[in-house]
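Example record used in the benchmark description.
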Amino acid sequence: METTSDSQVLMARQPIFDRTQRVVAYELLYRDEQGSENGLFRNSGSTSEVILNSYTSISDQGELKRVPAFINLSRDLLVSDDFPELPRKNIVLEIHQNIKIDREVIVAIYHLVKAGYRIALDHFTYKPQYEPLLKMAHIVKVDVQNMSFEEVAEQVRLLTPFKVTLLAEKIQTVEMLEECNKLGFKLFQGHFLSKPKLVKGKKVDPNQATLFELVQELQNPNTTPERLEHLIIRDPVLTYKLLRIVNSAAYSLVRKVESLTEAVVMLGMTQIRKWATLIALNNQSGKPEEICRGLLVRGRMCEEIALATKRSNPGSYFMTGMMSNLHLLLDIDRESMLREVPLSDEIKNAILLNAGDMGETLMFVGNYEAGDWDLLPTDFDSNLYESSYRKALDWSKEAMQALNDLD
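Model output (structure tokens):
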């Protein structure tokens, strides 16, 4: 999606999971300079398709795939005579509960369903007057944030006769996630992944610490191939994978490289940094891929912003973004992770206190990702942030796919 200085766009995505915590869709958050949330639909069909593809394509367990986008409709767009042509296979149209339900809305939804669109009722609480919509809807999103388990169970009881797929949204805890799973919800959305399931007494594995020590050393502009070899060789898996990378068909070498120092020189610092980071993250087995994907997106977005604004050492911005939520992969709290993983004080203070330029960038990036755009300063460069976010999405997809090819 092209943006210009007089066409400011804010856009982000939030994952929707199935019962195994695999991503099966993303809800798209969108706002333009008029504050409109329907600006996406004013683009031509081809532009909308490019946008949707960029925001909904991922590498999932080694497979490049595209998942549907959930997109909110305003009442004006819903009942308009010139509803835009959209790719029916790749989107789910959300109807928010605050839209007044009358004959005009019911007729409009009927025509969309007949045209092949899937409909989701958003922030839904059952009321008898909504039954005409429930007979047409495919998905119902129940906002469980301020409900007790008993209230959620009652919603399930009332909605079950309508044969809709139930999605629990705004799940904040793993406990509520597990309860919704038991009640029969098929889809899940919320910030439950952003809270680690703490394991008492757990520490960072020594092999993990070695990997992150290497990743930290790669930010040192004065490091040497010999120093990196000394750190790499302590991890047999990393050694094996880096040698596989440099000897892969992609590098078209005349002879095999067998020395780590030679491999470091051959790949170069940028590639070594990327691969070491990816391998370090990939060692955390048994975790939803979206956690790793989110770390890579955040790290790369911070780095893209640092590059565009000509900050010194943009690699440290990458580290700050990536490490800010690393504890989610390690099942320990953030403070314990920062004590055990070797990082510079500047990066630690940026993560813990939002200190310095790196900390400020991290805070702004976090707000952007969450769609908390009102928390961003009024003079922030929305074009830069949207572009950096989109580049980070593309890079994370390619990086995760390349890493899977090594296994």
